[in-house]
Here is the input.
Amino acid sequence: MAEALLDVAGIETSYGLSRVLFGISLSVAAGEMVSLMGRNGMGKTTTVRSIMGLTPPAAGSIRFAGTAIRALPAYRIAKLGLGLVPEGRQVFPNLTARENLVATAANRSAVPEPWTIEKIFTLFPRLEARANAMANLLSGGEQQMLAIGRALMTNPRLLILDEATEGLAPLIRDEIWRCLELLRSAGQSILVIDKNVDALTRIADRHYIIERGRVVWTGSSAALAAAPDIQHRYLGI
Here is the structure.
């Protein structure tokens, strides 16, 4: 594997006295799509929050593009080129869809062909039709598309999606997976959390499965697809 764009090594994170992560390690190379899977409550969102500086780890290291970021505040981490699509979407409800996109537009890395509103609308035609609608009036699927578009407008070096398709209708889920496949094909580095093993093994390069705050399995899509026992043990309900 190429040198890691994101390198997380042995992080331990707590909420007060309650330890959630026990030495999580993972990496994402430039241009790679990696998934983080596990049942609910196993530490996936806490891992994302630790990476983004929202719940800083007490131990371990996090490096992004060679820079140590564990001790940095969240806004500085975001400025380095990490774009987050948070669980629950968290769009700005009192802004229109177009205003949500304008609000986050930035090209701090001087990307030659940055994301524009027009490119977002090409990626998600549904959003163009709803461009002037208030974000809180959009459907759940439209809000997820907007959340992805809003993150892309920051021109991130790494896009992180927490529960990419949770609670969405099947047709919308398919559209989100199509979008992620297009982004991956274009060289976008992606870390995605989701429960859809079939979709993830189809488009992602590698996978991490966590159980009770620890990585219990990691491997390629081919290896995961060929291991129904692993899927049942750690991902089954």
